[in-house]
Amino acid sequence: QVQLVESGGGLVQAGASLRLSCVASGRTFSRYPMGWFRQGPGKEREFVAGISWSGLNTLYADSVKGRFTISTGGAKNTVYLQMNSLKPEDTAVYYCAARRDGLFTATAVATTRLEYGYWGQGTQVTVSS
C-alpha cells in the first residue's frame, strides 16, 4: 500500500520558519515528480511547489516564490518544503503528492492536481499575526 506521510506542521508567528517533510513508503518514487499543495479555510487546494525526480527542476507558486524551497532527500523517497518568512495567509493544510504512474524526464514538474495520483493526509500550518 502506498503511503505519503507529512510532518513538521505547527503554529508559528508571522516571520518564522518551518520545514515540512514527506516520506513515501510502499513503493519507491525515486523517478516520480513530487509536489506540495495547500488548502486554506474555505479555499480550493492550490499548488505550492513541485520538483522533478532528479531535483534539477523546481517550480513555485508566485505567492511563495523566494520564501519556500522544495527539495528531495538523499534516498529520493523524501521531499521537503522549507518555508521561511511565513505570513498569516500561508495558513493551510499542506499536502504532499506524487505524480500519477508514468515515465518522466529528469526535468518534468507537475503543477496541477490532476497530474498527481498519490496524496498524503496533510499537515496543518497555522501562522499567527
Strand and helix layout:
Layout: E1 3-7, E2 10-13, E3 18-25, E4 34-39, E5 46-51, E6 58-60, E7 68-72, E8 78-83, E9 92-99, E10 116-119, E11 123-128
Parallel strand pairs: 2-11
Antiparallel strand pairs: 1-3, 3-8, 4-5, 4-9, 5-6, 7-8, 9-10, 9-11
Rg over C-alpha atoms, rounded to the nearest angstrom: 14 Å
What structural class should be given to the helix and strand makeup? Answer: mainly beta
- What portion of the residues fall into strands of 2 or more residues? over 45%
Overall pLDDT level? 93
Tell me, what's the shape? globular
Low-pLDDT runs: none
What gap, in angstroms, lies between the N and C termini?
Answer: 40 Å
Query: How many strands, what sense, and barrel or not for the largest sheet?
Result: 7 strands, mixed
Output the number of helix runs: 0
| Series of H and E elements | EEEEEEEEEEE
| Total DSSP E strands | 11
Helical content band: under 10%
Features:
single chain; 129 residues; mainly beta; four-stranded antiparallel sheet; globular
Can you walk through the features of this model?
With 129 residues, this protein is mainly beta. The chain has no helices and 11 strands. Strands 2, 4, 5, 6, 9, 10 and 11 form a 7-stranded mixed beta sheet that branches. It has a 4-stranded antiparallel beta sheet with strand order 1-3-8-7, with no helix packed on it. β4 (34-39) and β5 (46-51) form a beta hairpin. It is globular and about 45 Å long. It starts with a strand and ends with a strand. The model has no long low-confidence stretch (mean pLDDT 93).
